[in-house]
Amino acid sequence: MSKTQRALKKATNQAAVAAAPRLRRLSSSQWVDIVIVFVTGVLFAIAWPTLQLTHHVPAGVQPVIAGLAALPLLLVRANPALGWAISAAGALVIPIVFDRVDGYDFPWQVVHVMVMMVLLVAVSMRAPIPVVGVAWVSTVLLFLAEAPGQDGRGWAVGLTALVLFGLLIRWLVLSRRQLAQQEEVTEVERARRAILEEKARIARDLHDVVAHHMSLVVVQAQSAPYRIDDVSPAARAEFESIGATARDALNEIRGMLGVLRSDGQLAEDAPMPGLDRIDELVEGSRRAGMQVSVDRAEMPGRLSDSAGLTVYRILQESLSNAARHAPGAPVRVVLGRDGDLATLAVVNDPPAGVRPSAVVDRAGGHGIAGMRDRALSVGGTLSAQPRANGGFEVVARVPAVPGAAASSGHVAPA
């Protein structure tokens, strides 16, 4: 083998290896199109040279007539009705314009008949029913008028059978699609029912455990001044504060239960907490013995419900963490704005009597992770980290309206 032959073979192998991945990436629909183009080319290659055996057609016109016989097959997927119309029009004109060769009695080439039959079946499978009726009647009349002798009636019966076969395939495919759609709907409904059952189970457990105990806390706090002798005014006020806080928590739990038990709709259109209830939240923390100061800078002109709820929940969790991890330490709350962002900073000093180095880093708790998830869910950011003096700070930046971008900038506490 010469060097030229070896180089040619190597180039051919490389081209085949490079083309293989592209061929594997072709979809089934693309493969069908390739087959249709290939078959059409083969039929055209057959119709052109054999046309002189069936009709007296000038040599320069033969490619056009062969094209009328074979090329409409290219439309079998894209527009079978148009392809059939072109093929039928050619079948009507060719016998009138061109004479047949002696000894050939049929008015069209075999290729032309094959293409017209395939297109008629495709029309019966895909076109609207009125179009199917027109194509069927026109094709039958065409064969009755042009086919010799008894052949016309035989072709009419055969064409009718083809149309019925195409309609049968059409109805079978349609019924299978409808069955698949119904199965999909059934599967979605089954999944939806499973989700509702799980939500109902969670709501039941939440009611049985949390709501029940919270109700007991409310009853005990309210009845304590009457069950215990010599309750001081300060203790009575403390019991009332505990009862009020427990009632607020119980109301929120009931709202959550309503959402869990509902089928995608709230059981009642109760307003969600937002910036308008921050004073109540701070006052409740003060009643619990916390030293909370609030600095309100300029707030955004408008704040979406989701943003207000997020700020409220982050502040609620931050105050709870400060009360748990730094009892007795003063807490500063800074509310402000930064462009289209609502900003919140909650800073607490270290617990009284504890060295800064002994303060536990609580940034890895579930509460911090939950606050960060809340901020991210509305497109915001949240940072939680210890301070140099042993305290802790939580900084949140939340878009005031949906679509505003939150950067990772720092909000300096007051």
UniProtKB/TrEMBL annotation:
InterPro entries: HATPase_C_sf, Sensor_HK_TwoCompSys, Sig_transdc_His_kin_sub3_dim/P. Keywords: ATP-binding, Kinase, Membrane, Nucleotide-binding, Phosphoprotein, Transferase, Transmembrane, Transmembrane helix, Two-component regulatory system. Residues 198-263 form the Signal transduction histidine kinase subgroup 3 dimerisation and phosphoacceptor domain. Gene3D superfamilies: 1.20.5.1930, Histidine kinase-like ATPase, C-terminal domain. Its EC number is 2.7.13.3. It comes from the Bacteria. This is histidine kinase. It comes from Rhodococcus daqingensis.
